[in-house]
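To illustrate the input format used throughout this study, we show a single complete record. The first block contains the structure-token representation of the backbone; no residue identities are included at this stage. The design step must infer an amino acid for every position from geometry alone.
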């Protein structure tokens, strides 16, 4: 029996492996390269589960993360974050060890890299396909062609194609919404491809959001996918429509430290430094997680009236329904499904399997 003494991130290995296998099979069905993003789990062990499923290329969000996974034997790595010129020394060291792909979105970045890189790297141009975070709009043909010309004249920057994270898919609230957004992404990309005066076979297109990769059915014009959250999913992905609640692979076990009958609340050891302060609104209630209990096939949610209602640094306040409040006593452990598994995993730093084995991050 696992002894919980502090906030602990539980991981259901069977669900996680099933999520991985499902995405592997989807990529194979659509003849897509599969380059999963490791930023969600950040774990060598879970990386091995991906490798066992046939994955050969990966995506990360930082040079530090790339270096860690290079040490684990991964040799084809994309850093899906606009290139940080202040890390050129570390990039040079990494480029000597692996087949490295960078995101380069600005001529000044490309020109500096041309001067300072010691080894060749591959480069993607990041496309803004609607999220308005980073990257060039697909309508900026002049800017895109200018970058391509710089790469073609470079002896160290080898243009690979385009990368996009359609993060606006997180605004979806149904499978239909996801597929509508996904189609708009395809339309933008394919319009860009038509506008470029070049053979589309000489470059690749990679997209990387979990909702579109999970529920999209048409990948025309796409060559590769790099979702990350799909390994765990979470309440946000369930709300979006990317997954079922039964696909959520992680939950946080927290000790109960106090009870307040007058307001039907319990205090738990589990706060913002464990869950983050990312919230969602479901059925008109804003919360930071739903209380569940372990079940044979993952987690069984108690009811909609039992949720993580408030967070401070170490404290969590759980609002209970009348029935659920009577189930909880001081000294018990309550299990909470996270809103955003990526942030929760980052904050807690390791996983507890049902067997009691612990899996660490880098």
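Output of the design step:
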């Amino acid at each position: 029996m696992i002894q919980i003494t502090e906030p602990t991130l539980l991981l259901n290995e069977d669900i996680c492996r099933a999520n991985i296998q499902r995405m592997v099979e989807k990529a194979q069905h659509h003849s897509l390269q599969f380059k999963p993003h490791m930023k969600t789990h950040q774990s060598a062990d879970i990386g091995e589960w991906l490798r066992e499923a046939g994955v050969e290329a990966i995506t990360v969000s930082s040079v530090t993360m790339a270096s860690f996974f290079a040490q684990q034997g991964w040799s084809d790595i994309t850093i899906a974050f606009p290139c940080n010129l202040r890390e050129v020394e570390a990039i040079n060291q990494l480029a000597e060890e692996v087949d490295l792909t960078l995101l380069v979105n600005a001529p000044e970045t490309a020109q500096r890299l041309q001067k300072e890189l010691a080894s060749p790297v591959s480069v993607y141009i990041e496309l803004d396909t609607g999220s308005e975070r980073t990257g060039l709009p697909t309508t900026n043909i002049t800017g895109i062609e200018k970058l391509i010309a710089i790469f073609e004249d470079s002896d160290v920057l080898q243009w690979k194609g385009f990368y996009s994270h359609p993060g606006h898919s997180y605004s979806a609230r149904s499978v239909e919404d996801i597929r509508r957004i996904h189609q708009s992404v395809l339309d933008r990309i394919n319009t860009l491809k038509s506008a470029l005066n070049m053979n589309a076979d000489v470059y690749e297109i990679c997209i990387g959001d979990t909702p579109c990769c999970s529920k999209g059915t048409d990948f025309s014009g796409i060559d590769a996918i790099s979702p990350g959250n799909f390994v765990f999913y979470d309440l946000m992905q369930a709300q979006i429509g990317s997954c079922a609640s039964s696909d959520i692979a992680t939950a946080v076990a927290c000790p109960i430290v106090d009870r307040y009958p007058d307001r039907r609340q319990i205090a738990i050891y589990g706060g913002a430094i464990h869950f983050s302060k990312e919230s969602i609104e479901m059925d008109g209630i804003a919360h930071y997680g739903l209380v569940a209990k372990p079940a044979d096939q993952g987690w069984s949610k108690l009811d909609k009236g039992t949720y993580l209602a408030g967070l401070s640094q170490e404290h969590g306040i759980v609002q209970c329904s009348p029935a659920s409040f009577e189930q909880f006593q001081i000294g018990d452990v309550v299990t909470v499904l996270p809103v955003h598994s990526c942030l929760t995993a980052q904050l807690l730093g390791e996983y507890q399997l049902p067997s009691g084995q612990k899996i660490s991050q880098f």
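Structural context for interpreting the output: The CA atoms of residues 47 and 282 lie 33 Å apart. Residues 175-195 form the longest helix (21 residues).
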